[in-house]
């Protein structure tokens, strides 16, 4: 076996695979390993499970490192087939559900797809409404309904405002808008007029100037917009504004969307409509 052979990590689920990926990734980040990811959703019967086992065993037959499996499959017969493969098998159902059944003194429902299915229709509708709100109030597209916003992210162009807003909407049902600080806004000594009545909803995003330049360079190569001097000026003035107006803000350079969203919720004590 070659020293540089990459281990394959499988995320297997009887539904979307999102939970298996989330939990598995959290564990894998504790190890400095380069691995090949394979997500196998909708493994919800023994026939599909048998094909998965064949796929996984094929890797071993070709001399690769022993695969790792993270599984959130619920059905007992399907799980039993998967356990027969030649791999390190981490079954989140066995790890968590069985001890919880013992502690709570009751059996789980064994229902497939509850965490990412439509489930409660009202909750689903809230999530869709929140996404539509964020899309309609992206990048200052409209400011007429800021009174309905739970949070308004503020920052110069390309600091990550849009993806954070959409994540807040999709994951938590938060009505998030975002407003881009223009060069004219940054030359003023106070908040833009449209934001002044919503001070308690504002949260700033900043970024390192060299990273901002790199992002903008891909969008508008060799433009004034993407010059380092322009980026330095905008970042400096934006942070000065945040500090002067006593607005909470975070530097997004090395922070994930998930971490930024969590920080926003915590700092502004936002209510999660979706859990």
Number of strands: 8
Number of domains in the coordinates? 2
Order of strands across the widest beta sheet? Answer: 2-1-3-4
* Strand percentage: 5-15%
- CATH class category label of the largest domain: Alpha Beta
* Helicity level: 40-55%
Task: Give a description of the structure.
The protein is α/β, with parallel strands linked by helices and 275 residues long. It has 2 domains: 7-104, 3-Layer(aba) Sandwich (Rossmann fold); 121-267, Rossmann fold. Helices cover 45% and strands 14% of the residues. The chain has helices at 18-28, 46-61, 76-82, 92-104, 121-136, 161-172, 183-187, 193-196, 209-219, 228-244, 257-267; strands at residues 7-12, 35-40, 68-71, 88-91, 151-155, 176-180, 202-206, 249-251. The protein has a 4-stranded parallel β-sheet with strand order 2-1-3-4. Helix 2 (46-61) packs parallel to helix 3 (76-82). It starts with 6 loop residues before the first strand and ends in an 8-residue tail after the last helix.
Which helices and strands occur, and which strands form pairs?
Blueprint: E1 7-12, H1 18-28, E2 35-40, H2 46-61, E3 68-71, H3 76-82, E4 88-91, H4 92-104, H5 121-136, E5 151-155, H6 161-172, E6 176-180, H7 183-187, H8 193-196, E7 202-206, H9 209-219, H10 228-244, E8 249-251, H11 257-267
Parallel strand pairs: 1-2, 1-3, 3-4, 5-6, 5-7, 7-8
Helix pairs in contact: 2-3, 5-6, 6-11, 9-10
């Amino acid at each position: 076996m070659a020293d540089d052979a990459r281990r394959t990590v499988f995320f297997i689920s009887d539904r979307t695979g999102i939970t298996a990926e989330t939990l598995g990734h959290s564990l894998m980040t504790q190890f400095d390993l380069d691995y090949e990811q394979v997500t196998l959703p909708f493994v919800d019967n023994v026939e599909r499970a048998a094909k998965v086992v064949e796929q996984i065993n094929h890797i071993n037959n070709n001399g690769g490192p022993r695969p790792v499996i993270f599984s959130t499959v619920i059905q007992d017969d399907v799980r039993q087939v998967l356990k027969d493969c030649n791999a390190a098998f981490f079954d989140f159902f066995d790890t968590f559900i069985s001890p919880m059944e013992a502690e709570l003194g009751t059996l789980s429902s064994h229902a497939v797809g509850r965490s990412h299915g439509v489930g409660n229709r009202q909750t689903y509708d809230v999530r869709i409404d929140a996404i539509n709100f964020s899309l309609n109030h992206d990048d200052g597209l409209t400011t007429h309904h800021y009174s309905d916003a739970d949070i308004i992210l503020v920052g110069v162009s390309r600091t990550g405002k849009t993806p954070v807003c959409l994540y807040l909407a999709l994951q938590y049902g938060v009505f998030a808008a975002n407003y881009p600080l223009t060069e004219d806004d940054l030359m003023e000594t106070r908040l833009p007029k449209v934001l002044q009545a919503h001070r308690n909803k504002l949260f700033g995003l900043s970024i390192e100037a060299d990273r901002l330049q790199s992002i903008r360079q891909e969008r508008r190569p060799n433009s004034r917009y993407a010059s380092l001097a322009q980026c330095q000026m905008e970042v400096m003035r934006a942070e000065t504004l945040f500090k002067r107006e006593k607005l909470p803000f975070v530097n997004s350079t090395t922070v994930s969307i998930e971490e930024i969203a969590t920080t926003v919720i915590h700092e502004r004590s936002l209510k999660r409509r979706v859990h």
